[in-house]
Amino acid sequence: MTDLKIYDTYNRENRVFKPLNHPFVGIYICGPTVYGHPHLGHARGPVVFDVLHRFLIYKGFKVRFVRNVTDVGHLVNDADEGEDKIAKKARVEQLEPMEIAQFYTDSYHKMLHALNIRPASIEPRASGHIIEQIEMISKIIENGFAYESNGSVYFDVIKYSSNHDYGKLSGRILEDLIAGAGNEARDLEGQDEKHNPNDFALWKKAGPEHIMRWPSPWSEGFPGWHIECSAMSRKYLGDTFDIHGGGMDLLFPHHESEIAQSQACTGHQPANYWMHHNMITVNGQKMAKSLNNGISIEEFFSGKHPLLEKAYSPMTLKFFILQAQYRGTLDFSNAALQASEKGLSRLLQAGETLEKIKPNNQNDLEVTSIQIELEEALNEDLNTPILIAKLFDLVTKINQIDTGQIGITLENLEKLKVIYKTFVHEILGLENEKDSGSEKIKGVLEILIELRNEAKSNKNYELSDVIRKKLTEIGIELKDGKEGTSFSIS
RNA sequence: GGUCGGAUGGCCGAGUGGCUAGGCACGGGUCUGCAAAACCCUCUACAGCGGUUCGAAUCCGCUUCCGACCUCCA
Fold it and tell me: Which of A 135-174 have CB under 7 A of nucleic chain B?
C-alpha cells in the first residue's frame, strides 16, 4: 500500500504525506467570511477537504480538523470610507454586526449539513480570538518585523524579506510587487501610514464609523485580515502543523502573509503542506458578484436562478465537484450537472443492488485488488475522478452479478459490501437522498405490486399499466425484473 | 504589464512517451405484454505550427485563445 501524496503548493510538487507526530494530523482550513449566503463556489473547499479529512481517518490517522469562520469584516474593497463588509451589511439591514455574522454562519452550516460534510473538530471565530491576535502582533513587533503607525500596526515586508523569502508560496518576486504596487494606484485607506506599499496591516485603528472594534495596546480597532488564521491555527495546532488548505484565490496575499507573520512571530513555517483547491467557474469565468454570475446554494437547491434549468440536490452538487480533481477549475453547466445527477443515481442504485445480490460458488471478482485500486486513486493527490471511474467499473460488475453473468462467493460479497460502503459513503461522503419510505408505505406498495402482478397474469395490461403510471407520477418507479417487481421512491 | 495555470471526443472530465479512464448524451441490440431498469455493442479525441524520439496527445520551442492572482477580494 503506497502513501498518500499531496501536491504541496509551497514546494510545487507532489510530496508523500508524513505527519509531524504520527498518528496525529493537524489541518487548518480557511473558512468563509460570513457576510452573505454561501454560493456554489463556497461548496468546493468544504467538499474537497472533507474527502481529505475522511480519507485520513480511513487511513488510521487521528485528525484534528480546524476550519475557521471569519466574523470580523475587514475592509470592503472599493469603499474608501473604511467600512467593513459585515458592518456595512449590519448598517443596511439595521442589525448588530454579530447578528449578521451569526445569521450567515448558520446559513453556511446549513450548506455543510446538506452536503454531508463532517463537522470540524474546532471551528474558531476571529472575533473570539482577538487576544491571541494581539499577542501575536506584539511578538512580531518585538521581533522587529512590524511597526506602529498612527494607531495601526503594519508588517514590514521589506525587513522580513531581507532574510526570508516573501513570495515563495505564491511565486511572486518582491521587486515585481514593489514595481506593481505604484502602477495600480490603489486608493486604499491608510496607505500613507505604511513605510512601503507592500506592507500589510496587522492591526487597524478604527474610524468613528467602524462599529466592530476592540481595545488594543495601539488603538481601539480591529485585526488585519491575515493575522486571525495565524493566531488560531497556532493556538489549536501549534507553531507548525501538518496541512493548511484553502482556495487558490487565498494564495496571495492571504497565505503568503500568514507564512510571513508566523515566521516573524515563531521563527517556524506554520504548515508542512499547503493545499489549494481551484475555483468553480461559470462559462469559463470565476463566480463573482461583479460578473453577476453567482448562484447561491439556496438557489441551487431550489432551482430558482436564471442560469438553472432545474433544481439540483446537495448530493448532485457534491458528486459534480468530486468528478473533477480539486486543483483544476470546474466549469458549471446544466448539462454537466444533469450528467452528474444521473451518474450518481446509478452509483447509488448499485449500492442497493449489492444488498440483494445472491452469492454462489463461482468467483469472478478479485475483491482485494479492487480495494487497492480505489485507495491508490486517492493516494494520488486525492484523485476523486479516478476513484469514481473505478467505482463505476465496480457498478458494472455488481450489475453483472445481479443479472447472473458473473458470480461471486459469499465471502467476497461481504467484502465487496464493505468496500462499497467505505468508499462511497464513508470516504466520499455520498448519501442516498431517495426516500425509501416508511415500513407501512413499503407494505402498501407490496400489496399494489401483488395486485398488479395478478392483473398482468390475467393479461389485464390496461390495469397493470395504470398502476405503474400512477405510481410513476408520484415518484415511485416500478421495475419488473427476473426476480419479480421492485420499486424505488425518488 | 508581471506571475502562474489551462486548451482532450456532442457535453463534463481523468491520464499517460508506445498498452484506446469514467460519467452523461447519441445510435444499434438483449430482456420485457409494453415500458423502465439492467446488460452488451457502437461513437477512438487530445488548440495550431515546428523540433526531440524507433514512436508524442504526453517532452522542448513558438503561435493563438482562455482563466486566476497582483495588498486586504471565497
Answer: 154, 157, 170-173
